[in-house]
Amino acid sequence: MNRSGGFMPHALTRRQFLAGAAALGADAIGRVPFARAAASTVSVARCDTYGPELVATLDRMFDQIGGLGRLVKGRTVAIKLNLTGPSTVRLGLLPPGLAHWVHPRVIGAVVHLMDRAGARRVRLLESGYATDIPLDEYMYQAGWNVGEIVRAGRRVELENTNGLGRGSEYHRFDVPGGGLLFPSYLLNHSFLDCDMFVSLAKLKDHTTTGVTLSMKNCFGNIPTTIYGDHVPKDRPDERPRSGRNFVFHDGSRQPASPAAPEIDSASPRHEGYRIPRVVVDICAARPVDLAIVDGIDSMGGTEGPWSGGEACHPGVLFAGTNCVNTDTVATAAMGYDPMARAGEAPFVWSDNILDLAERRGLGSRDLGRIEVAGTPIHEARFDFAPLIRSRFPRSVPPYPPRRRNP
Amino acid sequence: LPLARRQPELWFTPVDCRPARALRPTPESRVTDQGGAARLTAFERGYDSAEEGSIVDLGGLVPMRWPCGPLDIDRARRREGFGAREVEVLERWCDPGSLELVAGTPVSCLVSTWAEGAAGDESHQRALAPLIAAARRRGISVVGWVAAGADLRRAAGAAQASGLAAVATESREPVDGFDVLRFRKRGFGDLSPSGFLGDLEAVWPGMRPLKLEKGVDAVTGATSRPWIDSNAWYVRLARARLAPKALWLAFDAPDTGRPLTADAYLQAIADTGIPGARWMVSLDPSLRAGLAEGRPQARETWARIARSLAFFELHEAWAGYAPVGQIGVLSDFAGEDEFMSFELLNLLARRSGLYRVLPTGRAEEAPLDGLDSVLCMDSKPPAPALAKKLYAFAEAGGTLVTPPGWKARGVPDESAAIPRFRVYRCGRGRLAVAREDFGDPDLVAEDTQLLTSHRRDRVRVFNLGVGQFHYATSADGRAGVLHTLAFPTPYPRGPMAAWFRQPWARGRVLSVDSEAAAERAAADGGVEFHLPPPQVYAALEVSG
After folding, report:
1. Gap between the Cα atoms of B297 and B311, Å rounded
2. One-character DSSP codes across B256-276
3. Which chain B residues have a beta carbon less than 8 Å from that of A108?
4. What pLDDT, on a 0 to 100 scale, did the predictor assign at position A255?
């Protein structure tokens, strides 16, 4: 339990988490009573550049949430990066770290601080878009100096989690108490072979889910060798070739066997219904122990150049041990209301992902209960709403259709 | 209106095809004899020359298929969906006035049907006589296409008597006393170095959406790799293997029932021109009809085709640049290894991989300078001297990629993350031996790129979308060109950027219709040039 009396996933191993789901008082369909949703400290800091101030700022932020040592010392840490989209796509001429990808220096700084705090091993994870090539090669394609990242710690590994990677089998992660869309997910071994799981995300709008922060980042945990558009029905295809549109966005097919099919094949096929639920499922099945959001340089309007968008400079960082709390604070700092209902900005095309997560007991979205350390939200605020003008028109019908989310 | 009732001046009038800079050579500049027929230097061995000094300079000719006359009309009649309008169009193209179409364009050689071994051959040849004579007066060469089943000697004799510059055929029948351009199916098993090579198996270049059950379709995602048809890899291979002075590709524009766009033709011209070959320009039936009827849209398309041809003529020096090679592909490219080695090159090119062709027969003498890796494609092990050279390449810092059976050297490299290979640290370099026989050439291409590592990339292109790029440098290394070919996608396009490891000082972006300086910026490990959003084709000329 954390200081606020809520559930603190990072203090538990995965096994403990899974075993303890029932003890949390989940009801028959896995929902945890609202009042029990965790509220922990979220650190917010202004940081204007990716220069020398970055390490000191992050160091101070980690101290504000209880220190890195207690989280990582002697542990294997897995960090899910946000490197969404193809490695050779840019927003205009901007390198991806200044727009839609987490910046390499933030990765290096986090690795450095974790190494200094005694982490036994740091493993960087991402499912490269439509490919299973080694993650360092994916980064090289983008023009990154991978050596700088790897040398930031004593034992740093990289793994493309879009397939088996260095593992020999996929591991099933059951969603405690069932799931909102799928009962379980098959993931790369790296999500199991770690003592602590970090989501290192970017502060961005998202065309479907409204915002993409530490929770939505975990959508990329899911391997397209199993959940990709063109995989066979009866087995994984170890050569990923596509995204996850068919299984998740429009629900036009089920994942490859042996992954479990979705719970209710009659549920809405609209991505505004499906994607937030998948994300909440994944965050419940593989809990985020530490959430970090890079909002120094970013882009607004969308999550990547393929949907439009424009560059922006919020100049802010977020960190917290609860992903829902952290994303709630970040959402507020983006000028949005975390309590907004489906159909209201920023959740104009989807259900409110924070609402769903809170209802699942993953954490509170109540700013009144979340302690903010460091920079107050109003001082960190950077309004993303005006940037939505840069979003390319979409042909997706509105969601929810002529109704308000209950 | 029926064509016959149209005013003659409405059709086949010249178009303005001036490119952005300067102009292609004028027809007059190619005329060297009193008769007006193109008559230049002697061609070399492999080309069936009548006599030294009497034949056309194939390297300087820009050929165009010119369907017309009775034989083409007969062929059209045999086709399903044939219409009377088609006959009228083919008759119009036989009219000497049709030559106005190529006036002022780079097209300098018409390739017309000449003989099919049919009863109508002679009447067809007589019908073409006015066109041939008019072409000669304009300094345009005419080459007669002789079908494989025709009597080549007889057809060649008739061609010579009619003033044709040469005949072209896939027939192997020997002919003395007249120039014969031999077209062949792909393959090098029975070919020796040749002055002329005609490729009969070329494909219409472009993106081909696949059926989903077969793989990725073209519009799945922003970068899912679609199937791209291209001839560039074969041209590079043929030039490396046979060094022909002229390489012509014979492929027809697809008949979709509608005129193709000028961009589609530009793809075909660029895909052929970038590696230094010539496409026998072949217009789709709808466009030919549109030109015969003087339709403005057709004339606009043709003008752009002509400008595209002129662009590559103007920059023909680029074809002499050496493709920058990072991966040496070693094979004899023949026999049982032909399919895999051909597909490997095709797929490496599709990945915009930088490769150098290393024919096994010449590999012992060939320098491996500048290569980061050598991929041995053939199942048969190389001769001991060549194997020794390749191991030495690895020990000196290169990466040697081989099929199974190669003797391991060095110590296993446990950090290598390419599961289909056993990798050994070997001196300063690495040896990667495949665990199983090469099967999927696309996997071999990808694995080889990864074993070579993108860390060593010489060039990276951002925001190209679905496309390919080709990078070549001049012999003195002081200049280079990056060609980009982009295919249509539903995704909006932003500005491109090209990163080079070589710190080029200057860059200019050229397209068929424009030319401008490219902004240069320092970038990690090299320099970056900023380019406009991708067009069907653009070139970045770098220097300094």
Report:
1. 21
2. -SSPPPHHHHHHHHHHHHTTT
3. none
4. 97
> Edge-to-edge, what's the strand order for the sheet holding B459-462?
B459-462, B496-500, B526-531, B519-523
pLDDT at B48: 45
| DSSP string computed for A287-333 | --SEEEEEESSEEESSSSGGGB-EEE---EEEEES-HHHHHHHHHHH
Can you give the pLDDT at residue B82?
81
Q: What is the pLDDT of residue A8?
A: 33
At residue B255 the predicted structure's pLDDT band, cuts being 50, 70 and 90, is confident
pTM of structure = 0.89
Give me chain B's average pLDDT, please: 86
Cα distances (angstroms) measured from residue B300 to each of A263, A336, A382, B259, B306:
57, 52, 50, 12, 10
Q: Which two tokens stand for residue A138?
A: 């994916």
Pairing of strands B526-531, B496-500: antiparallel
The pLDDT assigned to B24 comes to 37
User: What amino acid is encoded at B400 in this protein?
Assistant: L
Q: Rounded to an integer, what is the distance from CA A135 to the centroid of its chain?
A: 18
Please name the residue that has the structure tokens 């789901």: A21
Beta strands B526-531; B519-523: pairing state: antiparallel
Any B CB within 8 A of A391 CB: no
For residue A232 the two structure tokens come to 């066979």
The DSSP annotation for A59-95 comes to HHHHHHTT-SHHHHBT-EEEEEE---S-TT--BTTB-
Stretch B492-496: mean pLDDT, rounded?
88
> Is residue B500 pLDDT above 90, yes or no?
yes
For residue A268, give the amino acid letter: P
- Report pLDDT for B194: 66
**CB burial string A293-305: b at 16+ within 10 A, e below:** bbbbbbbbbbbbb
Locus of tokens 């046979």 = B242
* Residue B509 tokens, joined: 């972006």
Residue B23 pLDDT more than 50?
no
The token pair that represents A399 in the structure block: 């969601």
Q: Distance (Å, rounded) from C-alpha A383 to C-alpha A337?
A: 11
Distance CA B349, CA B261 (A): 25
The tokens for B68 are 């017309």
For chain B, list residues whose CB is within 8 angstroms of any CB belonging to chain A: 212, 215-216, 220-225, 417-418, 443, 446, 450, 453-455, 457, 460-464, 491-492, 494-495, 497, 499, 523-525, 530
ipTM of this predicted complex?
Answer: 0.90
pLDDT in the model for residue B192: 63
Q: How are the residues of chain B apportioned to helix, strand and coil, as percentages rounded to the nearest 5?
A: 30, 25, 45
Which one has a higher pLDDT value, B13 or A322? Answer: A322
A230·B523 Cβ contact <8 A: no
Is residue B291 within 8 A of residue B259, CB to CB? The reply is: no
| Under 8 Å between Cβ of B329 and B348 | yes
Residues of chain A found within 8 Å of residue B225, distances taken between Cβ atoms: 130, 241
Residues of B in Cβ contact (< 8 Å) with A229: 220
